[in-house]
Amino acid sequence: NAGVTQTPKFRVLKTGQSMTLLCAQDMNHEYMYWYRQDPGMGLRLIHYSVGEGTTAKGEVPDGYNVSRLKKQNFLLGLESAAPSQTSVYFCASSLGTDEQYFGPGTRLTVT
Amino acid sequence: GQNIDQPTEMTATEGAIVQINCTYQTSGFNGLFWYQQHAGEAPTFLSYNVLDGLEEKGRFSSFLSRSKGYSYLLLKELQMKDSASYLCAVRDADNAGNMLTFGGGTRLMVKP
Question: Fewer C-beta within 10 Å: chain A N or C terminus?
């Protein structure tokens, strides 16, 4: 039981490049989330999903897109990366309204 | 919306007790979570309060007062491994998606 996994662990992008972050969970959780964490600002919700095929915007959705084609996977896309998107990205999942389980994070630098 | 405040940093001595406070202002309330996050790692769940009072779990306890918009996390018999950030998060009442709003976190340093 791997829990929540994220790939890649690290990535450096140039401004304007695109990339996709993959989150996978093997706990059969319905809900999945994408957060970013910046120094002094805590975790901020980007997008979330309450089930396969559904997504919704969180607190800071601009510049990101998501897809949940399979229950176990939640993808976060950056279409045109900007330096302001340099951050640590965490994926999480939960069984309904229970506590959220977090993945190990992806450290992204945009130059 | 939500506004969550907690101290940025705290220092305590190994073996002692420390209390980390969290205050919140919300348009609705449906639960408060505490998470622990070691440097460079993922947050891990510590406790959940939705009713007033104290929840105890081993060396860790969490308290909630909904009327005061106030919670604290109490860590007893501090160990060096308790050096970490502690994140307070509030769930809004009108929230079908189990969305949490996090405070900025309190970095706790435990000294010998």
Answer: N
